[in-house]
Amino acid sequence: MDVSFVQVALIFVVTFIAAIDQFDFLESLYQPIVTGAVVGAILGDVQTGLVVGGTYQLMTIGNMPIGGAQPPNAVIGGIMAAVFACSLNMDVNVAVAAAIPFALLGQYGVTLFFTLRAPMLESFRAAAVKADTKAITRLTVISEVILGLIFAAIVTLFFIGGQAFGETVVNAIPEWVNTGLSAGGGMMKFVGFAILLKIMMNRDMWGFFFMGFGLALIAVNIPAIAGPALLILTFIGFGIAFWDFQQQTELKGAAFDGGDMSDGI
Amino acid sequence: MASNEFVVPAQYEDLTPAPQVDSKTLNRMALRSYWLQSSFNYETMQSGGWLFAMIPGLEKVHTNKNDLAASMYHNLDFINTHPFLVTFVMGIVLSLEQNKLDTQTIRAVRISAASPLGGIGDALFWLTLVPITAGITSNMAIEGNIAAPFIFLLIFNLAQAACRFGLMKWAYKVGTGAIDALTANMQAFTRAASILGVFVVGALTVTMGGTQINLTIPNGTTRGLAAHTVVVNNKDAENFADLEGIDTEEAEPGTLALTDIDGNALTAVAGEDAVECGIVDLGNGMSSVTYAEVTETEVNYSVASTLDTVLPKLVPLALVLMLYFLFAKHNFTPIKGIVLLLVLGLLGAGPFGLWPSIW
After folding, report:
1. What is the ipTM of this complex?
2. How many domains does chain A have?
3. Closest chain B C-alpha to A171 CA, distance in angstroms
4. Does B207 contact A54 at a Cβ distance shorter than 8 Å?
5. Distance between CA A239 and CA A248 in Å, rounded?
6. Residue A253 burial by Cβ neighbours in a 10 Å radius (0-12, 13-18, 19+)
7. Where are the beta strands (DSSP E) in B3-62?
8. 3-state SS track over B131-146
């Protein structure tokens, strides 16, 4: 296909913005219904772009980033589908299907990226210790720019290299690296949990931790309440905490007016 | 790693409540909240973006530099909430910071308020607003209507902005209003908040803990007899006589048999039912022959289902407890914990095909 330098540059910019927008900012510019039309306009075929964007969008409904899970990446998938349809004159449905391996690659990439970005927290902590608010802003910008650049570079390469290139890359990554990284990434939240426990825990609180664990096990296994389980559990936890608060404050009040003498102790 | 030596004090140095934060600062915080996931990572999830969003408010309420540092540091705790509802948590936390509550209380309230919002937000936005607006506009787009993307963006972002700016102000008002009642019983409140906090972390271990050992170990084979029934004419039925007296315990899989080594009729399995083998003369010159085929199926021992019979989510629980132990008793740093988990993940996946993946 013949693409001009301007078109490559525009695809780069659009992907850069969409990559950031998928997690931050308006969190809607990245949706395929938008990127499809934009990519279509860049490649000179808005109508096809609209149709392919709408088709891809319908496919991704119900495939949203819920509960921290990573669905096949809609940024790469949506943009590549529009690229295939507009520049290779693929049928809309074929273009959407052909884009799926790229979306999966994006999903792996995001998982890997979120895993590797964890050490960056150390820089945030170092800035916090110095109360350096400007550094936090700087780190935030750097963090976003890296994300945008990685996505933009990958999509631009695919845009120039085409479909065969994408499949080669996907097949070149050994299976165990994928599995291992996503397993490691999946476990990383436990570090955050353990640190929170370290802050809040003292000897007589373990019972509440295990109560939360046990009740959650029950809740997630009842299909009717599995969705809002965490909200329901928080209500229960709130009830227990509130009860404890009342016990503590009433005991204090009772001791204050000597009321606890009546039971003869 | 100088940062790891930093210990967040139990109390701020300056305990005088700060004056009310003006509405312009609240708006700046709501604007910054659009970048909540800017530093999203698997260790503390949204914490970097959360701190970024909180900074205008924190700068207003903590004029003491040491206090600001302590506050910024503990605002980097693990947090995962819904991006569009985060300002609700921000408003509450800001009111606590402003009144200089104990740092442990603020941390416990933050995780307890933030976590359940994730589910509500997912239900409201990803499962309701997006499917409806995107569903309608996608069909418009497929028909070639250029207005479709614009309508989608407009509806979605009006809802989003209303949530972010509205919740910020409302939650801050609620938080500052409730603060007096709470500060009167500070110790009890901190205890109660911590109870809710550890309770929620216990629940999160289940709802977000997806790690499982999916290893299956081949555990020999089991032998069985599968019944087959054919209808043949009486003459052909006699040919089945040589299937009598077969030792089905020793025979190769696939061997056919009518009776066992002692000449007794075999009982074989057809679907769910057990049927007796033998030849039945149907009386019309035809016979119905039921014979057995020796089958051999592999038995797999599943680690996951065994673990689940002990306790579901045992692996996430064990990992959290192990990490807690390493952090609390062995002064492990978070980064060491991360490296440990990555190595565990890669080793478990069977590097270079040395052993089967356990994930």
Report:
1. 0.79
2. 2
3. 15
4. no
5. 14
6. exposed
7. none
8. HHHHHHHHHHHHCCCC
